[in-house]
Amino acid sequence: MRHLSELDSFAVSWSSWKPNIEHHLGSKPTAHSVFNLGDHLSEIFRSRKVVGRDNAALSQGGVAWECLVCWYLNLVLWGTDAIAIRPHTNFMPLTIKDALTVSIQNVQTNTESDLIVFTIPNSDKIDDLNLDGIDLVVKTSASNIAVSVVQCKTNWNDNSQIPMLWDLIYNSSSFRVPNVTVGRNGVSPTSFKKFSYSFVTVPTSRGIFAPSKLPVLRVRGLTGGNFWGHPTRDGVARSLKEFFTANFASSFSGTVQNHIQASLLQDPAVVKQFVGLSF
Question: Would the pTM of this model clear 0.90, i.e. be above it?
Fold first, then answer.
């Protein structure tokens, strides 16, 4: 989280986002208001001040959206055995990177993964939670670990085919493509207890999103689900707040709201740290 807060596109946007986030959380945050931030992330994202529409500005917007989603996921996941990360070299367990590597005629590539969410069993009993220690847990306990790739895009229409195809590659066991292999060094997505692929969008693209529209149909069957930063619209997309029960229900004791109340709001300083980006 400290790394996220130091990224220019995220830090600059935060000055616009923070008042909006505080408004939705209320003067005294509740489990309900924290959880329901997922219904308002698109509104919060759109409040950022944008200068220009060139490729650099669009790229910065994409990184900012990715960071905002990561911020919200980790806020709700606080106190569980799950964590959301950007696939940065300093934070990505090698075992998960190996599992997500696809080889096409001996040329290795990886999904356009913006975020990786995964569980760390018995994390409270690990003396040294550095990257090597986490990777050792992932490697030795893969069959007890849940992993979810979360692709974050500000635009929906131009990007929905990408997660659809990657999800097919990672999760289909009913067909084989010559010269294409998934995973390396003895680990693949099937090594994990649960593996899923999700799509999270603002979206900034114009158009009517209806159940019959092609961009919606492309991501309807994703193993991890299709989400956006608005309230759930049946047949189109679910609110991002539904990501947790769809993919990491076992990480929570009781309901997600009960977990937030018990693990997050018992120490008000934690919410202040998240809102103030003081990690």
Answer: yes
